[in-house]
């Protein structure tokens, strides 16, 4: 990471805290590693991102519906899905510092360093070796690579490594009063399984016809080996997932469609296209026959934000086997080749899975700007979040010019007429210029000032965040002006 991008990232993290977007969890107790809380503005921004996703996935697609399944699920589900036996990361300890690392991440970091130093051949060679070792689950080879490439512990600086072991990422807990093995349940590591086990409930009660999708937004938990990069890798995070059920044999076509549609969703927020790229998975998860990531260029490099996976009929077939219940769908449509209905089958599934917290971070990073406003006469600057207006936590702030002469009352009256439609903020403290800066810092698209003229002719000054231009408009036009910009 160059000094500038390093600094940008640090500044965004500091800004997120200073303006009530993200706080370290349990901060007064020195924090809990890789767990974060969203503050007053963060919660609004997060809700707006969820709404954007939900509207475009569920509301705009009449063959996709949304559910909200429980975090706790029957433990057999995680056996069937393969998570109990296979949801793990390769872990290695440094014997001197007693610090624990992900073996693959140490190697990824080394590859990035080779790249940065212009040693492209070495980077490519190591990437190949790493993929090969991961594909074969060859843990001793991972350790050999760490030794061969002379990777030292970032803390102790020594190369005194243990063997590599698999570490299961699922959190477990006990349900009920009796703590024996039978009561062990897991905090879900993905929301997808809640969709799979409900797919026939939804299909039948919603009379859904293939192809159809089920979407869900919810918490997921992973006991990540190490915490890294702020809200990129958390132990408690949120996912927005959609499982799309298709006729076997059509999965490639649907995979390509969703891959494209999901990138469009990202770009529709105005993010420059060069900030995104696709990354094809070389190592496929046990359930997948194709997988692409959508990656975003964070200050520390390209990183996965969303995965599009062709999950075959793996999950539904596994649940059919483990539960003993039929997971088949009856397809009455006639196959033009055989002239008979397609009949009973276990559908194939295309999944789109996006991390809400990573989406949140990329939105903050994209929007953050330290703008130099200096003129010949004076030095000036502002920090502005150029958020898409639909995502802005506060849509409009309203300021009485002074705290007297009935201006606060008039401002409140205008605010009351708008607050049912838009999230508004009332501010009367400090000079107007300072109030503008505070709203710029949280990305508020409009600031409305009520002054003495307002009392006479019911006009107000509206100031635009991005251009900083101000115009005088009748108060009764505010709803339309704000609505035109901030509605979906
Ligand atoms: P990574 O390789 O970065 O660990 P993953 O491939 O394990 O991610 P998926 O299982 O495909 O991730 O999960 C789907 C999405 O959930 C990811 O694209 C990411 O945005 C998000 N996600 C996964 N793990 C975390 C985490 N620990 N913290 C925050 N978001 C996460």
From TrEMBL:
Keyword Nucleotide-binding attributed: yes
The segment(s) forming the Aminoacyl-transfer RNA synthetases class-II family profile domain are: 138-389
* Residues that bind ATP: 222-224, 232-237, 304-305, 355-358
**Subcellular localization, per the record?**
Cytoplasm
Q: Which SUPFAM superfamilies match?
A: Class II aaRS ABD-related, Class II aaRS and biotin synthetases
Entry keyword set: Aminoacyl-tRNA synthetase, ATP-binding, Cytoplasm, Ligase, Nucleotide-binding, Protein biosynthesis
Its catalytic activity?
tRNA(Gly) + glycine + ATP = glycyl-tRNA(Gly) + AMP + diphosphate
Record-listed E.C. numbers: 6.1.1.14
Q: Is Cytoplasm given among the entry's keywords?
A: yes
Checking Pfam families in the record gives:
HGTP_anticodon, tRNA-synt_2b
PROSITE patterns per record: AA_TRNA_LIGASE_II (PS50862)
Q: Name one GO molecular function term.
A: glycine-tRNA ligase activity
Positions with a binding annotation for substrate: 102, 190, 237-241, 351-355
Could you say which protein family the record assigns here?
Answer: Belongs to the class-II aminoacyl-tRNA synthetase family.
Function, please? Catalyzes the attachment of glycine to tRNA(Gly).
Cite the record's note on assembly.
Homodimer.
Protein name, as recorded: Glycine--tRNA ligase
Species of origin reads Mucilaginibacter terrae
Encoding gene (name)? glyQS
């Amino acid at each position: 990471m160059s000094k500038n991008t390093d600094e940008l990232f640090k500044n965004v993290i500091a800004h997120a805290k200073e303006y009530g977007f993200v706080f370290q969890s349990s901060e007064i107790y020195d924090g809990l590693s890789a767990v974060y809380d969203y503050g007053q503005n963060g919660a609004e921004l997060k809700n707006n991102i969820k709404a954007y996703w939900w509207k475009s996935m569920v509301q705009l697609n009449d063959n996709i519906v949304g559910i909200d399944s429980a975090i706790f699920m029957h433990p057999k589900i995680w056996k069937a899905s393969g998570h109990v036996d296979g949801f793990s990361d390769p872990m290695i300890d440094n014997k001197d510092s007693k610090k624990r690392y992900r073996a693959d991440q140490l190697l990824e970091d080394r590859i990035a360093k080779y790249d940065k130093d212009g040693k492209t051949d070495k980077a490519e060679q190591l990437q190949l070796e790493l993929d090969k070792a991961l594909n074969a689950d060859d843990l001793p080879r991972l350790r050999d690579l760490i030794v061969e490439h002379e990777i030292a512990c970032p803390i102790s600086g020594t190369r005194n490594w243990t063997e590599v072991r698999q570490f299961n990422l699922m959190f477990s807990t006990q349900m009920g009063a009796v703590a024996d093995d039978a009561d062990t349940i897991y905090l879900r590591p993905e929301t997808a399984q809640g969709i799979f086990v409900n797919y026939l409930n939804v299909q039948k009660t919603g009379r859904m016809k293939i192809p159809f999708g089920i979407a869900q937004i919810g918490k997921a938990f992973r006991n990540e080996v190490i915490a890294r990069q702020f809200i990129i890798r958390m132990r408690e995070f949120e996912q927005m997932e959609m499982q799309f059920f298709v006729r076997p044999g059509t999965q490639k076509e649907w995979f390509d469609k969703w891959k494209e549609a999901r990138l469009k969703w990202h770009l529709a927020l105005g993010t420059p296209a060069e900030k995104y790229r696709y990354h094809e998975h070389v190592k496929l998860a046990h359930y997948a026959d194709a997988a692409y990531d959508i990656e975003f260029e964070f200050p520390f490099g390209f990183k996965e934000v969303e995965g599009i996976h062709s999950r075959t009929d793996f999950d539904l077939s596994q649940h059919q086997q483990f539960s003993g219940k039929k997971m088949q769908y009856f397809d009455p449509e006639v196959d033009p080749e055989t002239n008979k209905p397609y009949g009973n089958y276990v559908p194939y599934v295309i999944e789109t899975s996006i991390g809400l917290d990573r989406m949140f971070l990329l939105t903050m990073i994209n929007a953050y700007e330290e703008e130099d406003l200096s003129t010949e006469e004076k030095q000036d600057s502002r920090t502005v979040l150029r958020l898409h207006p639909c995502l802005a936590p506060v849509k409009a702030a309203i300021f009485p010019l002074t705290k007297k002469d009935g201006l606060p009352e008039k401002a409140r009256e205008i605010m009351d007429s708008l607050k049912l439609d838009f999230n508004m903020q009332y501010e009367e403290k400090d000079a107007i210029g300072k109030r503008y800066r505070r709203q710029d810092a949280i990305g508020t698209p409009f600031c409305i000032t009520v002054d003495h003229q307002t009392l006479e002719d019911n006009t107000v000054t509206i100031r635009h965040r991005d251009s900083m231009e101000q115009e005088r408009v009748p108060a009764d036009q505010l709803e339309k002006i704000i609505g035109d910009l901030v509605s979906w």
